[in-house]
Amino acid sequence: MRERLEAYFEFARLGTDWRTEILAGFTTFVTMAYIVFVNPSILQDAGMPFGAVMMVTCLSAAAGSILMGALARYPIALAPGMGLNTYFTYAVVKGMGVAWQTALGAVFLSGVLFFVLTVLGVRQWIVAAIPRELYAAVSAGVGLFIAFIGLRNAGVIVASPATLVSLGSLAAPTAALALGGLLLIAALLAWNVRGAMLIGILATAAVAAATGAAQWQPAEFNVSGITATAGQLDVAGALSRGVFEIVLVLFFVDLFDNLGTLVAVAKKAVLVQGNDGEIPRLNRILLTDATATMAGAVAGTSTVVSYIESAAGVAAGGRSGVTAIVTGLLFLAALFVAPLVGAIPGAATAPALIVVGSLMMPVVSKISWDDPVVSVPAFLTMLTIPLTFSIANGLALGFTAFALLSIARHGVRSVGWPAYAMTALLVFRFVYLSRNAGH
How crowded is the C-beta side of 246, counted as CA atoms within 13 Å? Predict the structure, then answer.
């Protein structure tokens, strides 16, 4: 049985083993475990019960990650998406006055749309239309984004009304802990210690607990509580209300964030094949994403997406679907030990995110910086992903710039009709976002 599993997950070809995959799964889990409490805290503002949403968060993350690992065989974990949950709560429920049950119906419809477009090959066509020259830029941009999130979570970078961002107090407990954890992880990597990420996270968390920096958040576990959200979605209400605008936003954000995550993680894990940058089992990846979104809506949460924190597991050596399966199993366990999960502070995971960001930067050497048609879109992609706090925005700006510059240099026939269609779609997206920027 063990040999058959290793053959199925292609351990030999990927150069991995059980110990590495399990450690990678743990690393991915601890870097994204914050979602267990953050997601229900946000959806609670939409009127949804905290305890039920917490259980659904764990279950949807577990189901999506295990399905991704078993079916698509990628080290990519899934969970309810940050950004989309805030849109769900503050724009749809509070801003538009839509009941959370109806909003869940809209999420379900967006999942159905994703699924249909995947079966018809439209989403695969969009992936194929992305210039391979931008793959490295997306990966590097995501690296900067991850590091930026880590520095923000550590309190090293803080908001500033004068300069947007500024240096925080390095003497503050969170910042000091995070910088200490950063030095520890970097040193362990320099010494070629396996599991350096996980060791660094757990050691920093232990210091945080000993110094009182970790916040203990007890939560009662009651399986029956899930009925407060499970099956409560109102698809008929969503259809009768006319949710095109909501579904459109969910579609755009989920599509491009997932594409960016997929490209970045696949690139980092060296899973992209051939000179044309083919991504194996792409259909399975996209179908998993769509299925997870539909299942999450039925259970009672906002859109389930691929998590860029998966790159932490990849940096720890994860290459196969076993990494995602381990992460999923840990989310199941989190149902019963939620207080322990909540005790892992941002100061402990922030150093890992910063290191992961640095490990994703070598791909910039693959960008043709002396060719403006490539370098300008690549630079825009890398810069706007962290500065707009959106993988989707960076990928969209980079693709649009690449298409327009290619046409300017080589003429209208230099790009195929898929690129024209994609550019038109993205321009429409930017117009739509600009029109609704103040709403």
Answer: 32
Among residues 59, 133, 147, 395, which one has the least CA distance to residue 254? 395
Pair of tokens at residue 361: 């930067």
Sequence-ordered list of residues with C-beta below 8 angstroms from that of 214, at least 6 positions apart, any chain? 205, 208, 343, 344, 345, 348
Give per-residue pLDDT as tens, 104-135. 999 999 999 889 988 988 877 777 777 777 87
pTM of the model: 0.77
The residue with tokens 């609704």 is 436
Buried (b) or exposed (e) across 248-277, using 16+ Cβ within 10 A? ebbbbbbbbbbbbbbbbbbbbbebbeeeeb
C-alpha 266: how far from chain center: 13
| ∠ CA 354-388-439, rounded to 5° | 140
Mean pLDDT, the chain, whole residue set: 85
Tokens of 252: 């755009």
Q: In 155-269, where does DSSP find H-type helix?
A: 173-190, 196-211, 235-241, 244-268
Using one digit for the tens of pLDDT, what is the confidence trace for 58-98?
Answer: 999 999 999 999 999 999 999 998 767 877 888 788 878 88
